[in-house]
């Protein structure tokens, strides 16, 4: 990724070099680190304990209390924190000879911590924040999501929306593509008016997710990583 090019696509996740990836997984296994797994067959995250690597292609793990019931092979997104950095890999989980095994031969990504690390959503992409509450009023308004980061979204409120200001708390459902909507309470961090032709004015608001616990953060980051991959496949840069 070329960060000096202002036209380069914004990315939330940066690919880790192969040699660094191998070292990382060896360290993770050596430290018996707990990794969080979001499987394709259930909504909730579960955890595994890394024990050893095999030929730098698989990570052999033990179950934890919340993963004992997981016994089916499935696609998954794995994330873990190491040296204050957060890493993600989209992979497969299977079970063999008493081990829970995660494939680690795919690409590993590091979460970009920069404040401007965000994913711009193409105009054609079906991304909506369905606003249900603003300035004390119950509503049902579709607001287009313009970009998303690990901490919030930028939305365009339609002309019919009440005027919002910095510090306002809004409520709504975030819907990205065909995925199930997630309800959020958000705080307005910036707002500006956007003039269109014919006297039409909309509001662009940057909002921050509120009440994000570790579980929701993991789910959110897995979702954004999945979204980044989907967008880069569907809308390749010319």
Fold and architecture overview:
- The protein is mainly beta.
- It has 2 domains: 17-106, Electron Transport, Fmn-binding Protein, Chain A (Pnp Oxidase, Chain A, Roll), CATH 2.30.110; 119-234, predicted glycosyltransferase like domains (Thrombin, subunit H), CATH 2.40.10.
- The chain contains 2 helices and 15 strands.
- The protein has helices spanning 18-30, 214-234; strands at residues 13-15, 34-39, 45-54, 58-63, 74-82, 85-96, 99-103, 108-111, 118-120, 127-134, 137-149, 152-157, 169-176, 182-195, 201-209.
- Strand 5 and strand 6 form a beta hairpin.
Topology, pairings included?
Elements: E1 13-15, H1 18-30, E2 34-39, E3 45-54, E4 58-63, E5 74-82, E6 85-96, E7 99-103, E8 108-111, E9 118-120, E10 127-134, E11 137-149, E12 152-157, E13 169-176, E14 182-195, E15 201-209, H2 214-234
Antiparallel strand pairs: 1-8, 2-3, 2-5, 3-4, 4-7, 5-6, 6-7, 6-8, 9-11, 10-11, 10-13, 11-12, 12-15, 13-14, 14-15
What is this entry, summarized?
This protein is mostly beta strands and 238 residues long. The chain is 14% helix and 49% strand.
Q: Assign the CATH class of the largest domain.
A: Mainly Beta
As a percent range, the share of strand residues is over 45%
Q: Given the C-alpha coordinates, what overall shape results?
A: elongated
- Report the order of strands and helices: EHEEEEEEEEEEEEEEH
Q: Which fold name fills CATH's third level, the topology of the largest domain?
A: Thrombin, subunit H
Quantity of strands, as a count: 15
The order of strands across the largest sheet is 2-3-4-7-6-5
Q: Would you tell me the overall average pLDDT? A: 87
Low-confidence stretches: 1-9
The number of domains: 2
Structural class by sheet pairing and helices? mainly beta
* Terminal residue distance: 16 Å
Question: Under the CATH scheme, which architecture of the largest domain would be assigned?
Answer: Beta Barrel
Number of helices: 2
Largest sheet: 6 strands, antiparallel, barrel
Instruction: State the helical fraction.
Output: 10-25%
């Amino acid at each position: 990724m070329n960060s000096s090019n202002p036209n380069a696509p914004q990315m939330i996740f940066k690919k880790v070099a192969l040699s660094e990836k191998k070292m990382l997984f060896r360290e993770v296994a050596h430290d018996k680190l707990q990794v969080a797994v979001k499987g394709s067959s259930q909504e909730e995250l579960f955890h595994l304990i890394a024990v050893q690597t095999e030929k730098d292609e698989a990570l052999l793990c033990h179950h934890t209390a919340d993963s004992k019931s997981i016994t089916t092979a499935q696609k998954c997104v794995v994330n873990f924190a190491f040296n204050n950095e957060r890493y993600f890999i989209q992979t497969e989980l299977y079970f063999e000879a008493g081990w829970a095994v995660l494939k680690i031969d795919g690409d590993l990504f590091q979460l970009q911590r920069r404040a401007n690390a965000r994913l711009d959503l193409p105009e054609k992409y079906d991304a909506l924040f369905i606003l249900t509450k603003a300035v004390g009023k119950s509503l049902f308004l579709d607001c287009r999501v313009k970009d998303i980061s690990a901490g919030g979204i930028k939305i365009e409120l339609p002309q019919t929306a009440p005027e919002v200001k910095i510090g306002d708390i809004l409520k709504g459902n975030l819907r990205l593509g065909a995925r199930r909507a997630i309800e959020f309470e958000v705080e307005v961090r910036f707002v500006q008016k956007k003039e269109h032709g014919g006297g039409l004015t909309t509001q662009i608001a940057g909002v921050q997710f509120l009440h994000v616990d570790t579980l929701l953060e993991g789910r959110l980051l897995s979702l954004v990583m999945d979204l980044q991959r989907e967008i880069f496949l569907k809308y390749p840069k010319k």
